[in-house]
Structures are given as C-alpha cells and as structure tokens.
Amino acid sequence: MSDKIKAAAIQMDSVLYGKAENLKTASALVQEALAAGCRLIALPELFNTGYFVQARDYELAETIPGPTTEWMRNLCAGSGSFLVGAIIERSPIEGVLYDTSVIVGKYGVVGIYRKVYLWQNEALRFAHGNDYPVFDLSFAKIGLQICYEAGFPEGARLLALKGATVVVYSAAFSGKRSYAWELGTQARALENGVFVLAANRCGQEGEEYPFAARSRIVAPDGSILSEAQSGEQALCCEIDLAAVEAQRIEIPYLRDYNLPMLARQLNSLME
Fold first, then answer.
1. What gap in Å lies between CA 188 and CA 166, rounded to an integer?
2. Which tens digit of pLDDT belongs to each residue from 127-163?
3. How far apart are CA 135 and CA 138, in angstroms?
C-alpha cells in the first residue's frame, strides 16, 4: 500500500454569526478537495460561526456530536476521507464551553481535542483543555492543535512522542502576527519530523483585525510543500508519509530527546 495521500487545508472567510452561510462556503471548498482525492481535509478555527462572537458564544455553541459534526459526516459519507475543524463546543456534562477541534469521518466523530493554550480573552470565553490525544486514521496518526498553539512546541512534541505523523492546526491567526504563524508551523514540523497541515482564516472581522491567511502544508523537514495567499482556497497537496521516518533518521530529535531529565527539571520548577 502506498504511503502517499492527498491532504487539503481549507482557507476561508466566515460571516459573523452566519452558520448557514459559513457552512455553505465551507461545503463548496471541501467538495473541491474531495473531488481532488484528498483523504484528510482541515478547516480553520471557528469556521462555522466566525471568531469574534463572544456576545453569543452560548447560543452558537454545540454539543459533539451535533449539527456541525453531522454536516461534516455527511460530507465524508461517500468517501474514506476525514474532515477536521474547530468549533465552539458546549460540554453536556459540565455545561462549559471549549474551543474544540474535531475529526469526523463517514461514520461520525473519530475524536476531539480541546484547546489547551487560550489566547488573551479566550480564557474568559472557554475552559482549558488538558490532554493531547492522537487519533489513528489507518493511513496516518493525527494530532490536533489550534491557532495560538503553533507557538507552543511542547504540544506538538508530546503528540509526536505519542506517535503522531501529522499535526493539524485549525487557526484564526491574525495578520499582525503572521511572522509567528509562518515560523511556528515550519518549526513544529522540523523539530518533530511530522507533516503540518495548517488551515487559517482569511478576510477580516472588524476594521482592525485582518487574518493572516497563508494556510500551508509543511513537510517533516520544514519545507513548505504548498501555501495559499490571501483568498479563499482549497489548498490540496500530495504528501508522502514515508518522509516522516526518513526525516526522523536524518535528524533524530525524538530519538535523542531526554524526557526523564526534562521531567525532573519541570518538576523542580513546580516545587
């Protein structure tokens, strides 16, 4: 069986509070990626609601499974593809909200990841996640991260140590800090020997908040395989998963990682 698959990062704008319109936009782009044969497709952060919707977070939040994950399942129903996207989750048990990335296939929800590192006022909107799960999709092991977390190497490192070969970032990263997005996504790929599939928002919300766009697919050696510019796009690219093992042999960061020593140092800082 070939190690090569096609993957896609969906770059799109979103209308504030406009779920129906946003899902229509996303649907057209996802279907374009499916038609190109993409097996793994990533959507941006809060793609279905827009990002600055804090005044109506509770109204817009959904349980998982819920309406948006069912929409994702329907898109995948005719294929063996998987769709990733981050939405506002309402926990049915705790009643709190999370910024949550979810993987969905033709049979429904495969797994969820709740954002651990919240950016600025997100901490007033959402609870923190506390786990780094890895999901086995048979063709690849997938780890999930969200936006700001491209600047936290520990998350991607833990995912790689747990076996992830692809790390997916769903983002609403600002244009003002695009340098952090560009450097971070490449660094996380190189230092862990993983593919990075990074789907970012384009457009802007309000007069002073343009998004960075520049969705990209990054190889395990840190090279950019494909990158979008400013507009809406289904960024499709073939990736060869055999490159993961090859890069980890070329530069053995994971082999030489001294986890016991690091654990001791972290424990000492917490004392």
1. 11
2. 999 999 999 999 999 999 999 999 999 999 999 999 9
3. 9
Q: Token pair for residue 20?
A: 């129906």
Nearest-angstrom CA–CA distance, 236 and 227? 9
Closest CA to 200 of 221, 223, 230, 224: 230
- Residues annotated catalytic, as ranges: 45, 115, 147
H-type alpha helices, 2-152: 19-35, 57-60, 67-76, 122-125
Average pLDDT, the chain: 96
Backbone angles phi, psi at 92, to 5 degrees: -70, -20
Q: Which residues contact 44 (CB under 8 A, 6 or more apart)?
A: 10, 11, 12, 14, 85, 86, 170, 171, 172, 199, 200, 201, 215
Residues linked to residue 238 through DSSP beta bridges, in sequence order:
6
**Which residue is it, tokens 């997916």?**
168
Residues 44, 54: Cα–Cα separation, whole Å: 17
Contact 42, 199 (CB under 8 A): yes
Q: With CA atoms as reference, report the closest residue to 190 among 237, 222, 227.
A: 222
**Which residue from 158, 134, 135, 159 is spatially nearest to 82, judged by alpha carbons?**
135
Please name the amino acid found at residue 141: K
Strand partners, 84: 42, 103
Between CA 84 and CA 14, with CA 234 as vertex, the angle to 5 degrees is 70
**All domains in the chain, ordered by first residue:** 4-270 (3.60.110.10)
Within 13 A of 52's CA, how many CA atoms are on the CB side?
Answer: 12
Matching residue, tokens 């809406």: 232
pTM score, two decimals? 0.96
Cα distance between residue 60 and residue 42, in whole Å: 21
Q: In the structure, what pLDDT confidence band is assigned to residue 28 with cuts at 50, 70 and 90?
A: very high
Are the CB atoms for 195 and 241 separated by under 8 Å? yes
